[in-house]
Amino acid sequence: MLEAKNIFKSFNNGNVRVLKDVCLDIAEGDFTVILGASGSGKSTLMSIISGLERPDSGTVTYNGIQLTALKDKELTDFRRKYVGFIFQQYYLLPHLSVENNVRLGADLAGNRNYKNIIKSVGLEDKCKNRPFELSGGEQQRVCIARALAKQPKILFLDEPTGALDEQTGRSVLDYIVKLKNLEGFTMVMVTHNQNIAEMADTVVKMNSGGITEVYKNSSIKSAYEIGW
Ligand SMILES: Nc1ncnc2c1ncn2[C@@H]1O[C@H](COP(=O)(O)OP(=O)(O)O)[C@@H](O)[C@H]1O
Ligand SMILES: [Mg+2]
Q1: Which residues surround ligand 2, an ion (CB under 5 A)?
Q2: Spans of all domains in the chain
Q3: How many whole angstroms from 192 Cα to the centroid of ligand 1?
Q4: Of 1, 15, 45, 83, which has the fewest CB atoms closer than 10 Å, so is most exposed?
Q5: pLDDT digit string (tens) for 86-135?
Q6: One CATH from 3.30.70.380, 3.40.50.300, 3.40.50.2000, 3.40.50.10170 for 29-56+72-216
Q7: Which pTM does this prediction carry?
C-alpha cells in the first residue's frame, strides 16, 4: 500500500544527515510501529512517508500514486483525502468546542457523521466544552476523533501517548486499536517505547537514521497487557 524506496534526508544544507537509504513497505490494514531511540529519525521518516515533507532523494508511493512526484497542492490534496495525523501535542483550536474541533476534520472529508465519532471516543458529554476544560487524555481523544472524522485510509501517530500518564495512555491506546479494528484503516505509530511495540502487527526498528530490523509479532498484546 505504502512503499518508501531509498529515502535520504538531511537538514542544514546537508550538514545534518538524518535518513540514510531507508526502504520501507507498509501493508494495507497493518498496524506498524516504528520503534527507535530519540533522535533516530522516526519523526522525520513519518513526515516523509505521510507526505508532510519531501525527501532529498528516494521515492514514496501510495497505491500507485508517487507522492514524491506530486506538486505541493496535489500533495496537500493527497493528505486531505487519505491521511490522518495524531501527534504528542494536541494542536486543538482553543476557541472551538470539542464538537467544532472534530467537525473541522469531518468537513475536510465531507463527512456528516462526526457525532458518532465523538461518541466512540466517549466524549459526547463534553462536546460543548473547549479544550482547556478537558484533561490531557480527553484532549488526545478529541484529536483521535478529529483525525478519524476525516475517514482516513491511513492514520499516522507520532508518540501519541508521550504526554499522558499510564492510566490515560493505556486508555487512549485502547481506543485507538478498537477504532482501527472497527474501521479497518492502516496505522503507523512512531514510538520510543518498546512496550507499545508489542501491540503492533509489524515492528520497524530504527537506529541512527536507518532501519535495523523489521519483524512481525507472533502474539499481539492489548493496551492493558503491555508493561509501561
Ligand atoms: N528541521 C530540522 N532541522 C535540523 N535538524 C533536524 C530537523 N528535524 C530533525 N532534525 C534532527 O534529525 C535527527 C532525527 O530527528 P527526529 O526525526 O525528530 O528523531 P526521532 O523522532 O526519532 O526522535 C535529530 O538529530 C534531530 O535533531
Ligand atoms: Mg520524534
Answers
A1: 43
A2: 29-56+72-216
A3: 14
A4: 15
A5: 999 989 999 999 999 999 888 887 877 888 889 888 899 999 999 999 99
A6: 3.40.50.300
A7: 0.95
